[in-house]
Design goal:
Number of strands: 17
Distance between the termini: 32 Å
Number of domains: 4
Helix content: 25-40%
Strand content: 15-25%
Strand order of the largest sheet: 12-14-13-16-17-15
Shape: globular
CATH architecture of the largest domain: 3-Layer(aba) Sandwich
Number of helices: 17
Length: 577
């Protein structure tokens, strides 16, 4: 049953008149249950993603009306463009509300390409699938991530990490302008030059907590400038031995040594991502042959009849999938395929591996939109426990991490019950030649630019084995940084796009931002650009300063007191009459 605590009635009629009743969804009524679902819904307490209202504004003026309503009622607004946040921070709990921009800006004027100037202005409402397709059609590209259902608003504010990270940096590194609606409802365009601090805070500080971003302008890259580039996508049947072999190569690339272990910093031209998946995965849809045909591939002799074999009903067997890219940054650059490519393709499944034999030069826009993107919303339809960590190690090959993570993955991959499902991604990002590293100090606030590797572990689970998944996750978390076990990094480092675990940012800020100075600066900017708390819908936000938070709390108390007094007066008048 909907109660008065679910949403604020004050000003609601004016809001509905401004945006239209068909664009306002009240908790527990109408199509609210359809609209409230997002990526995190399956895996967190229901209350985390239950806003009092879901509102779909149609333009900037209507966004202003939503902010007016929030300011009037002293509540927060969660901004959703795609709703792909792992921890659910693009939603909130009633009486706070959610503003859904997933369809707001998809008109003819919401995407403008000036190709001769290498400039693209785009809205935040396009999905990554739509954006990648548009870029491929126009033979342009910028770095971006892999998940098709991610929308550009959240993606650019959390960085836009992806397969091109070493060669070209983050998507946000290519942003020239941001079109925003500020806390007063005013629309304006900001750049590094016009409002350096706000531009810095929006790109990497606390996504969605400084302004409503509606559009942004990118400096794009052209296919014809990188004509000799190539890549390959190789699939392997998973075995612990094959995983160890491939991981050894990837770790050497990350550590900046050659295959023989001699110092040789990885060239900027290279990007690589090592993926490991349980059986019944949907990755097979990305390869030339059909998923049905992949079921016919068996594990190596001697293993096919053991407990490590996937059930015959599997959509696909356990897989290792390697993505490798080489960019011809200069016309004089020449690929030495024997150095890394041949080592990372040795023994792959022929029908499920792309371009590994011929290494045919392939347009960058084609690779980013067809090869380095996942053609499904999520790998498994089950709830998940996720973790994403960054490493500052340059000597992982000398630690126990490779053996430790191999054993950790095998705990999920080996049993035949198929009730836990792992998706692991291991990607080198660093080294002195990495563009992500070089772009440190470029006017964005993304932390840990010097990270050498990013590892994501997603453990999907069937509902009745949640305790097993939690135990596995806790074992990982308790040992991943321990020098006796994982020894993955000297400190806890996490990217904002992969948020997990503790949901109170004030308690875990050190894992997302390097130092106290940056954190304190972001808090002061929150006071300046969100003085009423309208961009503070949940606890996963850089908090205001103590003084700023106290001011907001007093304003809420005064509003509550005023409305209580007005209610008593109405009650008294009613009974007097």
């Amino acid at each position: 049953m909907t109660t008065s605590a679910d949403f604020c009635a004050e000003g609601l009629d004016a809001l509905i008149e401004a945006v239209g009743s068909h664009n306002v969804y009240k908790k527990d009524s109408g199509f609210y249950e359809r609209e409230v679902v997002q990526y995190a819904t399956t895996s967190h307490k229901r209350s985390r993603t239950l806003p009092g209202l879901i509102i779909k504004p149609g333009n900037r003026q209507e966004i202003g009306a939503v902010l007016d309503y929030a300011r009037l009622n002293k509540i927060g607004v969660a901004i959703r463009t795609g709703g792909h946040s792992y921890s659910g921070d693009s939603s909130c709990t009633a009486p706070n509300i959610q503003m859904d921009l997933s369809q707001t800006f998809k008109g003819r004027d919401d995407r403008t390409l000036m190709r001769s100037l290498r400039i693209l202005r785009t809205s935040v409402s396009w999905s990554l699938a739509e954006f990648a397709s548009y870029c491929n059609k126009n033979k342009i590209f910028v770095p971006h991530g892999q998940c098709i259902a991610v929308h550009l608003g959240g993606h650019v504010q959390t960085g836009g990490y992806g397969q091109l990270g070493r060669s070209f940096g983050l998507m946000a590194d290519h942003v020239l302008e941001l079109d925003i609606v500020d806390h007063t409802g005013k629309s304006r365009t900001i750049t590094k030059q016009s409002d350096r601090d706000l531009f810095w805070a929006i790109l990497g500080g606390s996504p969605g907590n400084y302004a409503v971003v509606t559009h942004f302008t990118l400096k794009v890259l052209l296919d014809e400038d990188y004509e000799g580039s190539t890549g390959m996508k190789c699939a392997f049947l998973y075995t612990p031995q094959k995983f160890k072999e491939l991981l050894d190569v990837v770790v050497k690339m990350s550590d900046g040594v050659d295959p023989d272990g001699k110092p040789s910093p990885l060239a900027q031209n290279y990007d690589v991502c090592l993926n490991v998946l349980s059986s019944k995965n949907t990755y097979a849809a990305l390869f030339p042959e059909t998923p049905h045909e992949l079921k016919k591939h068996l594990h190596p002799p001697g293993e096919a009849v053991t407990e490590t074999s996937p059930p015959a009903t599997s959509r696909a067997p356990r897989l290792i999938v390697v993505w490798v890219q080489w960019v011809q940054l200069k016309k004089t650059d020449v690929l030495d395929r024997k150095l890394w490519f041949d080592r990372l393709s040795n023994g792959c499944i022929d029908g499920y591996s792309l371009n590994y034999k011929e290494l045919k030069p392939t347009p960058m826009s084609y690779m980013t939109s067809n090869w380095w993107i996942l053609d499904n919303v999520r790998e498994y339809p089950w709830p998940y426990i996720k973790s994403t960590r960054m490493s500052d190690k340059t000597d992982l090959r000398k630690t126990n991490w490779a053996n430790w993570i191999g054993g950790l993955l095998e705990q999920v991959l080996k049993p035949e019950e198929d009730e836990l499902f792992i998706v692991a991604q291991i990607q080198p990002f660093g080294g002195p030649n990495s563009q992500t590293v070089k772009n440190k100090g470029n006017g964005t606030s993304y932390s840990f630019r010097d990270a050498t590797m990013i590892v994501t572990l997603d453990c999907f689970y069937k509902h009745h084995v949640r305790d097993r998944a939690l135990k596995w996750f806790k074992d990982n978390e308790s040992k991943v940084l321990d020098p006796k076990y994982g020894d993955f990094s000297t400190k806890d480092m996490r990217p904002l796009w992969g948020s997990f675990g503790e949901y109170d940012f004030s308690k875990i800020w050190h894992a997302y931002h390097e130092d106290q100075h940056k954190y304190d600066k972001l808090r002061k900017l929150r006071d300046l650009h969100d003085p009423d708390g309208v961009f503070t819908p949940n606890t996963f936000s850089v908090p205001h300063t103590d003084a700023g938070a106290e001011k907001i709390a007093r304003a809420k108390e005064e509003l509550t007191s005023q409305r209580a007094m007005a209610s008593r007066e109405r009650f008294s008048t009613l009974h007097t009459d």
